[in-house]
Amino acid sequence: MSEPAGLLSKVYTSTVNSYTMVFFSKNPWFGLLLMVVSFFDVYAGAAGLLSLLTANGLAWGLGLNRRNILSGFYGFNSLLTGLGLGLSFQPGPEFYLLLVATALATLFITLAFEGLLSKYALPYLTLPFLIAIWIATLAARNYSTMIPGESGIYTLSTIYERGGPLVVRIYEWFGDVSWPLFIKTYFKSLGAIFFQYHLFAGLLIAAGLLFYSRIAFLLSVTGFASAWGFYLLIGANMNELNYGFIGFNHILTAIAIGGFFMIASGWSFLWVILVTPIISMITAGFAELLGIIQLPVYSLPFNLMVLLFLYAMKFREKMQMKPEPVAVQHYSPELNLYIGQNSGERFRNKSYLPVSLPFFGVWTVNQGHNGEFTHQEEWRHAWDFVITDEAGKEFSGEGAKVSDYYCFDKPVTAPANGWVEEIVDSIDDNPPGEINLGRNWGNTIIIRHSERLYSKLSHLKKGSIKVKQGSYVHQGQVIASCGNSGRSPYPHLHFQLQSTPHIGSATLNYPVSQYLSYQE
Amino acid sequence: MSEPAGLLSKVYTSTVNSYTMVFFSKNPWFGLLLMVVSFFDVYAGAAGLLSLLTANGLAWGLGLNRRNILSGFYGFNSLLTGLGLGLSFQPGPEFYLLLVATALATLFITLAFEGLLSKYALPYLTLPFLIAIWIATLAARNYSTMIPGESGIYTLSTIYERGGPLVVRIYEWFGDVSWPLFIKTYFKSLGAIFFQYHLFAGLLIAAGLLFYSRIAFLLSVTGFASAWGFYLLIGANMNELNYGFIGFNHILTAIAIGGFFMIASGWSFLWVILVTPIISMITAGFAELLGIIQLPVYSLPFNLMVLLFLYAMKFREKMQMKPEPVAVQHYSPELNLYIGQNSGERFRNKSYLPVSLPFFGVWTVNQGHNGEFTHQEEWRHAWDFVITDEAGKEFSGEGAKVSDYYCFDKPVTAPANGWVEEIVDSIDDNPPGEINLGRNWGNTIIIRHSERLYSKLSHLKKGSIKVKQGSYVHQGQVIASCGNSGRSPYPHLHFQLQSTPHIGSATLNYPVSQYLSYQE
Amino acid sequence: MSEPAGLLSKVYTSTVNSYTMVFFSKNPWFGLLLMVVSFFDVYAGAAGLLSLLTANGLAWGLGLNRRNILSGFYGFNSLLTGLGLGLSFQPGPEFYLLLVATALATLFITLAFEGLLSKYALPYLTLPFLIAIWIATLAARNYSTMIPGESGIYTLSTIYERGGPLVVRIYEWFGDVSWPLFIKTYFKSLGAIFFQYHLFAGLLIAAGLLFYSRIAFLLSVTGFASAWGFYLLIGANMNELNYGFIGFNHILTAIAIGGFFMIASGWSFLWVILVTPIISMITAGFAELLGIIQLPVYSLPFNLMVLLFLYAMKFREKMQMKPEPVAVQHYSPELNLYIGQNSGERFRNKSYLPVSLPFFGVWTVNQGHNGEFTHQEEWRHAWDFVITDEAGKEFSGEGAKVSDYYCFDKPVTAPANGWVEEIVDSIDDNPPGEINLGRNWGNTIIIRHSERLYSKLSHLKKGSIKVKQGSYVHQGQVIASCGNSGRSPYPHLHFQLQSTPHIGSATLNYPVSQYLSYQE
Question: The domain that contains B331 carries what CATH number?
């Protein structure tokens, strides 16, 4: 379906986003920078890239949600797994076989965590990476073809190849530079997020972070300084910070709870400091535990702390503004802050983005029969509309032909401005009383109104869709006709609002404005 | 209630099914064969049988779902636990006390996993066995009366007793036979599923498997060969396969994802091969982990792999046919394949098995009051029907007597052909406004229409049921009268479709055909 | 808002309840006794108190549910964590820093378990304590400022200070008393629940237990005797009981399943004995497992056993009375038994506590628009009421002013007798079509009708509330007016019944009696 250029562009987008998603960003320049940094150890970088390409390719082949793939959601954990394995083992055909298998496993584990945690409205972060790399590492000890890598051997030659002698000299100079330990460790901890334990890598990442978001940078420093202070105070093992670079857990947690999942504020910074001892305890505790089997904790403290914190915040009945959760994710602490504040203002006395009903005139919410069957569980915030006459009937005559139904072939309109995200237009309309279980939703249009607001119109008449994928539609514009395709025994219009472009996405709880509801 | 013959027949059915369920089958001959094989080590076999009888008996005494017990769902994990313990420890009164306690624990753990995993529509497989045997094994190290068993000592004498010298000679000959290692290991791995590490046991099981399903047999060979190849290629520890017989994890996974939970196809065989490295990694990784405490991994890799795979497949928005999940389980890869294909055809342009509403004339879906209270969560695909007059009232006069209600004592009909599965007929009808919380559903008929389609009619009038348990009813046949028993403040008919015969089963999302819905 | 006296009283209540909740009680005298016992080791007692005050204070500051805090639900796990840490480490500023951080972590973990387990209607018991103390203990091994405590050093001097030489002599005499080992161990196991491994502590707790509930005392003896017998029989390590005092797991489990979560009966006592071997296996099994990392099992066996048991009991389709779960918790086995029996009688032919609709005259359940949006998931047992005219319209004129709506400013009445639990009265009414997302529920009254039955009336008119917090209201009494505050685009009355006083509590499935429902 996609021409080669389109395919390449999708591969590019999904790849760059997989890098940048590690830092909660969608900034492509930051992603490219991170990719370059990951290649400082060329074999590790290559393993990371191969792993993420495998995961994204498999996700595509499996038929997973395309937007999630493009956003890097299914790639970043595989990227990290690949980087970690690439650094640990020498390359070779057996290694790449294992790498590809681990990428598949990481994808499976990602889906499992997505399913588990989305029920609690929590993100899966890098938990899939942790499970996958631990199992792969343990397993590799039993595989005689896996030879421990000599990390760093390839680094200098790679840098030389790519940057020439000058860059090598810069790189080496950074290794010797006599900056304060605190600062050196901060940068190295940043680099450690991409398995690059060198000052230069951290410096580049810090620059990218600053470029991507000054709030995120400030949070990273705050989190790290708070950790440093606590380690000194409590007499913890400074080597964890100095040589284990485990401080990146404090950095990532600070960004996550200080500005990404919560709106940045004095309160969010306060919490960054308050949770520092807990992150340290998780780190030290699990280091003891995993030490038995010689596994590193990696980003486990970050994962546990962020999940505990975000979940706890949901239990607040008061003080929900201290700090306030991010309602619509803009992948930037700054945007989350500014837009969050504005919408806060707006929401206080106004309503949502106005969404109207997707038709003209008076339709009836049909809940007498089908509603009982299909608008359940995850699809409960949905409506089925039909047109009824004064007697409450949906059709004239016998109702044996679809054209007997009042709503059949009536115009369907865009409920709000937006971009046409997806179109299905080739499914036959069923005769009344029959349903097509192979293609539940039938002919369908999905419209993207904002980052997290999509509308879906389903069971449309075959061949009736008047718009194209990617085109912009205006509220009220006629875009299709009501039909009887898919799991629809009688002509009706299915309308729902959802937060993702999934065809099978759960529906969103959203008020439709500008209509009058008549109830009889 | 049951006459002795009926009881014996239930014990027999639940017992044989517990054996055969280990191989995803319901074939009684296969079950009997597996039972015989399990008795090659007579004490292990006896412990297995005692453990499963205990679990099934306790399940019965606790009042758990009878059909689940008869299907072996609550017995097969206890069977495996018993076999494992019987092989590990010498018999004795203290051993049998521990065995019975472990069987109870296994049952409790089974229920916990059933509850947890059914929320994700996933099977619990042999996870309960794993948890139970690991804890019992660890605990037994602290119990001085538990003496490690000398596995195999009793085997020959048992075989002699049962089969005479000829069978002993056959058995011994099999031990010495100089077949290729691959073939010997395949058979021994099959035997290991029932804790019988002998060629002869595996050969019998293979014969039973071939008899039960040629697809399952082919899958078992495919899965094992794929594992063998991967072990050679990656340089894994062949002893895991050769002497640990851990290869049965590949065999069971192949059957599960290749033909039991998915419809057998080229795609399903491809996946059997694709997941081989992941099974091996899980095996090697957890062997390292559990090795710390000297516990075997048993069937953990099979369990994790199947769950990860099945769950991941649910996230597909496209390619749902590659491979296609089994919608209605027939406990045979062949039936799943043939019936799945046919119903696929049928569903494409036809509707479901026709189910009609369980009454004559015009009734009203009563959602004004009670619907709010009880048709929630797991019971949401249910209807409450009443008869209303033109003013919308449900009764004439004061409504103080049940006979004031229009629907009271009106005939209730079978919604489709089927067998009467269960009857409750002795609960008093409540006066209007009162409810009986001790017997929520009141007088009830459950009808089985197909393997996974049951209908339930509740709150029936005391003594009104006109059919007997086990009898066959025809669609439209009058089977009872509408009443006011159970949690019913006012006479009404509760009607729902469900996938199990549980009285408290969750409802099914199923279109009721052949009716016209008037909505006012 | 609270005057100092009110604040002090809240601190006192939440503190005492945190002690007593460990024994499933709400008896303040028992709580005070337990607090005194905890101070036998003065530093441990102080650490426990500080930890629970921290947790309760943070819970208050975070805006968590006030009633849960007052009931001690958020404090008792932190109390136990503090006691355990106070006994393990010497006091000092770094220790108190760690203690406060652990209290915060315990609170976060408590919320996580509350969220996870409440979906299965299971209690979180002392699981948060376990996770928190294990991680803190492991972490402290890496903190050089944490110096292992010399438990017992401070005990005698404390007792001397508090009780004088006589009490010291009594205390020492108890240490030497030559009672049978069984009895001494029973008392010491009781003491171990509060980390006090001394006969005297156990004796005091036993006295308190007897005073609080004779059934609980009898259960504690039954559970302990059953464990003692099983240990002897199976040849288990008696030191676990004699010196590890792990027997308290049997004591707590016996109280929990014998009379607290289940109604005490011959059946419940039978189960106390039946599960004894399983508790022992869990204890021995996890002692092996946790022994690797030198962590005690603490109350893990109690937690696992109670959860497994309670969850398994839910799967019963028959025999639900053997034993019967406690429907309304009275925090006393005696009350659970007597009230449970009576309500059992009552419920068999009567209905619930009568709750009527919260208004006069005929209102309409408005489910045409808003119902679709907000009464979903956890808020599904809720109603929105409006007044409609004969044409089904909710307003006269244009509907542009709130006063156009028929229901606006109409009186709202108390649905049943009860105490006003909470009031919000200062939120502006929205103009029609606009909503206030910052304050979803708008002006609200919550009334407590019984321990587990609350009603909530929301979106009330600003300034219309006629009752005060804490006052008693009678069914039918006018308490406010219908309004349009909060997430309400058009004036309506939101009414729901719930089991907790949370503003955002899930709704309860409860029949409203004494009303006629007209359906058109």
Answer: 1.10.3430.10
